[in-house]
Amino acid sequence: MSSNRTKILVVFYSMTGNVAKLAAAVAQGANRVPDTEVRIRQVPELIPKEKFNEVMAKVKQELKDIPIATMEDLEWANGIAFGTPTRFGNMSAQMKNFIDQTGGLWQKGALVNKVAGIFTSTSTQHGGQESTILTSMVPLFHHGMILVGVPFSETRLFSIDPVSGGSPYGASSVSGPGADRAPIENEIEIAKTLGKRIANIAKKLV
Ligand SMILES: Cc1cc2nc3c(=O)[nH]c(=O)nc-3n(C[C@H](O)[C@H](O)[C@H](O)COP(=O)(O)O)c2cc1C
Q1: Burial class for 153, CB neighbours closer than 10 Å (0-12, 13-18, 19+)
Q2: How far is the CA of 34 from the centre of ligand 1 (A)?
Q3: Closest ligand 1 atom, CA of 125?
Q4: pTM higher than 0.85 for the full model?
Q5: Domains and CATH numbers, the chain
Q6: Residue 158, SS3?
Q7: Strand, helix or coil for residue 90
Q8: Cα–Cα distance between 125 and 129 in angstroms, integer?
Q9: What distance in angstroms lies between residue 113's CA and the mean position of ligand 1's atoms?
Q10: How close is the Cα of 191 to the center of ligand 1, in Å?
Q11: CA 179 to CA 86: how far, in whole Å?
């Protein structure tokens, strides 16, 4: 691939598949920007295989061909979308574990001025999407990244019926108590908008 392409990394963790679906939408949105190259990566699982339930085992099988993210992926990218399920109003341990391995990159300022955005999924409507997105931004500010969200020019943010994720802080979905409500069209489209926005801004800054 030619090096003057804008490089976008979509890196995520997903246990029951919802964030993975949002990740695909974010990648699709980024790919809409001409001359963009997108990598989709997942962070390592921390839960032992023997603890997987049936749904988790199925999702892990579905995601098995998505490569595990490396520090090189982060260095490679001009823009990065981070996706994590909400865990008690914060990012998942799996994503935090990955970010906590970026000390070396921080020391050499490798992520300074790269564009970043966040997407998440909760089971409940008010279960902490915004707190997850905002707190996920904190370590990225330490890295000197340029954080972007979704402006209200994306009019799908105004939609409240049916219940929908999506906020000015980033993309999101509401998966329901059984985590089995796949992202609805409104949420998917907002996720695409986030991906496109990260790629567009990264392109301008490259
Ligand atoms: C340990 C744990 C903590 C969670 N914390 C929250 C929470 O604070 N708020 C919420 O609405 N959902 C919470 N959830 C639900 C997940 O965030 C939700 O099911 C999400 O859609 C899962 O994304 P995934 O399908 O990509 O794994 C939690 C789930 C687990 C297992």
Answers
A1: exposed
A2: 34
A3: 11
A4: yes
A5: 6-205 (3.40.50.360)
A6: helix
A7: strand
A8: 8
A9: 31
A10: 18
A11: 12
